[in-house]
Design brief:
With about 500 residues, the protein is mainly α. The chain has helices at about 25-30, 35-55, 65-80, 90-100, 120-125, 135-145, 185-195, 210-225, 225-230, 250-255, 260-270, 275-300, 330-340, 345-360, 365-375, 380-390, 410-415, 435-445, 450, 460-465, 470-485, and strands at about 20-25, 60-65, 85, 105-110, 150, 150-155. Helix 11 runs antiparallel to helix 12 (about 275-300). Bound molecules: flavin-adenine dinucleotide and iron/sulfur cluster (SF4). Flavin-adenine dinucleotide binds near residues 253, 291 and 383.
Length: about 500
């Protein structure tokens, strides 16, 4: 049981080691997963099995009903004196494995696929008054001595946010190195395509499933998009799920790439391609800062974190999230369509469209979280849960974010090309043709007044809300209620409790 990199097996030579790999039916069926996500995971596992065999490992590759049965069957057959596993990345699996240590000779080793060990994050968190990412990130820069110059941040500043808020560029970028599926991948695609109850299509799957192909993908990003990463990192363009982003999350989260090597390559590539510091710092911040912080926060807060719901939202996810074709909001429809087609959109679609809309309309945060988990090729509970419940919906009441990431239509208009082609008018505030984000935003602030008005970062918005006339307030309430009542209901696609096995 390991993530998919040979480097982490260096202390376990083939002569003394048998590798167990389990394809668990229950895991596949736990949510209505995107077909491309399943193809990616399963094909990468099967390719890794070949790599292991090519360097001399014996692999016990099992197709089992669930993970625990696979482990027990392996033990029955081989009676190994010891079974080693890296700590799983997810709470549910950690519980299963911890349970199995009682009757199997199973030992859990620290998970090597992060820069910061879990215990070190806990040490940092226990020493802090509040757990903001910015403080963590600065601490990590110093600890790892990355982008530092004599104990000071390179370039004299910790962040370059001001330079990094440009609307989408005119220029386009070459396609990343999509991979023609080989026989192994084609077989997985056929099986998955035929399975009922899943989402999206596997038939045009072209993502890397080996470490070598993931490395090519990474180098291609550094060559073509990296220099523009910073300025356009908050921008959105219709039908462009990547823009200047990398999609490295899919390969990092599978273990095909290690975050430390991605940062090392980024530092080299920045010199090679004369990448400006605002892009280099912006990218390093994502991996050394956000990714490590989210991982640490997940383990610091679980299992209670799954139950947070600060705004007490209860609504089911609108059917649009599965069938976007009927949705009239151009930004929302296109963002969901990209997820349905590719299993991916970049961060700002996730934050400022998909989650912003769900939060403003009172969707239960766990339902949204499970949709992200099911639909994205890079989604695993450890990373989507804190992002959805903490960063995107403020469902944890401000543990991660200092204020909710919500906005009216003007933010989306400024940072994307969506509004020009939308049936709603982003400049209108009320009535059937007004952009729904406009009235939903103010309605949300009014409804959550008690919970948000004392937050200093919300003070300006509450002052503006208080300046609205009675007539404006009535129309905000009326338009929002009308819009929310008409949302198409979901057909309850999946069970609320995810089964980790
Ligand atoms: C609602 C919501 C749900 C999300 N769900 C996931 C998820 O399931 N899996 C996932 O990996 N990321 C998730 N993220 C974080 C982020 O959106 C993705 O990591 C990023 O969009 C992946 O695309 P990329 O590789 O092109 O990223 P880039 O913009 O190219 O960034 C480089 C890398 O930084 C890391 N990174 C950046 N931001 C974050 C973050 N907030 N949390 C963790 N890592 C980060 C990723 O590994 C990413 O590959 C979510 C964010 C939001 C707002
Ligand atoms: S007008 Fe509103 S709904 Fe339409 S694309 Fe713009 S922000 Fe989205």
């Amino acid at each position: 049981m390991c993530d998919l990199s040979l480097a982490e097996l260096k202390n376990y030579p083939p002569a003394d080691t048998r590798i167990l790999m389990i394809e668990s039916q229950r895991k596949w069926q736990a949510l209505p997963f995107h077909r491309k996500k399943l193809v990616l995971g399963i094909s990468a596992m099967r390719h890794f099995r070949l790599e292991l065999e090519q360097v001399g490992y014996e692999v016990d590759y099992r197709h089992e009903a669930d993970f625990a049965s696979g482990l027990r069957a392996h033990f029955q057959q081989y009676r190994p004196p010891q079974i080693l596993a890296f700590q799983p990345r997810e709470w549910g699996m950690q519980q299963i494995l911890t349970g199995l240590t009682k009757d199997l000779p199973l030992l859990l080793l620290p998970n090597p696929f992060y820069i910061l060990p879990r215990e070190d994050f806990i040490g940092w968190a226990n020493s802090q008054k509040n757990l903001r990412m910015e403080t963590f990130y600065r601490w990590m820069r110093q600890r790892e001595n990355i982008l530092m110059e004599k104990n000071r941040p390179l370039g004299g500043r910790w962040n370059f946010d001001k330079e990094n808020r440009k609307p989408p560029p005119e220029r386009t970028y070459p396609d990343p190195p999509y991979v023609e599926p080989d026989g192994i991948t084609r077989a997985v695609m056929e099986t998955i395509q035929a399975l009922p109850g899943l989402w999206g299509s596997a038939s045009d799957f072209r993502l890397p499933v080996t470490r070598a192909a993931a490395m090519d993908w990474m180098e291609h990003f550094f060559r073509w998009r990296f220099a523009d990463f910073g300025p356009y990192e908050d921008a959105m363009r219709s039908s462009d799920p990547l823009l200047t982003h990398s999609l490295l999350s899919a390969f990092l989260n599978l273990g095909l790439l290690h975050p430390r090597e991605v940062i090392e390559h980024a530092l080299q590539a920045a010199q090679q391609y004369a990448v400006p510091l605002n892009s280099l710092e912006g990218f390093v911040r994502q991996i050394l800062g956000w990714r490590e912080y989210i991982h640490g926060m997940y383990w610091y807060q679980m299992p209670d974190y799954r139950r947070v719901n600060y705004f007490e939202h209860q609504r089911a996810l609108p059917r649009w999230y599965w069938e976007p074709e009927e949705c009239e909001l151009a930004c929302l429809r296109d963002s969901i369509q990209m997820v349905k087609q590719h299993g991916f959109t970049h961060h700002i679609h996730r934050l400022m469209v998909l989650s912003n809309f769900a939060n403003l309309t009172g969707i239960h945060p766990l339902r949204l979280s499970e949709w992200f988990w099911a639909g994205f090729v890079d989604a695993y509970e450890w990373v989507e849960l804190p992002n959805v419940l903490g960063m995107a919906t403020y469902a944890d009441g401000g543990l991660l974010a200092s204020k909710p990431y919500i906005s009216s239509g003007s933010y989306i208009n400024k940072m994307s090309n969506y509004c020009a082609a939308c049936r709603f008018d982003v400049n209108k505030k009320q009535g059937e043709d007004a952009c729904p984000f406009n009235y939903l935003y103010w309605d949300f602030l009014e409804k959550q007044r008690e919970k948000l008005m004392y937050n200093p970062r919300m003070a300006v918005m509450y002052r503006l809300l208080d300046q609205k006339t009675n007539e404006e307030r009535v129309s905000i309430r009326r338009d929002s209620a009308r819009f929310i009542t008409r949302l198409p209901e979901d057909d309850d696609r999946y069970p609320f409790e995810y089964d980790a096995g």
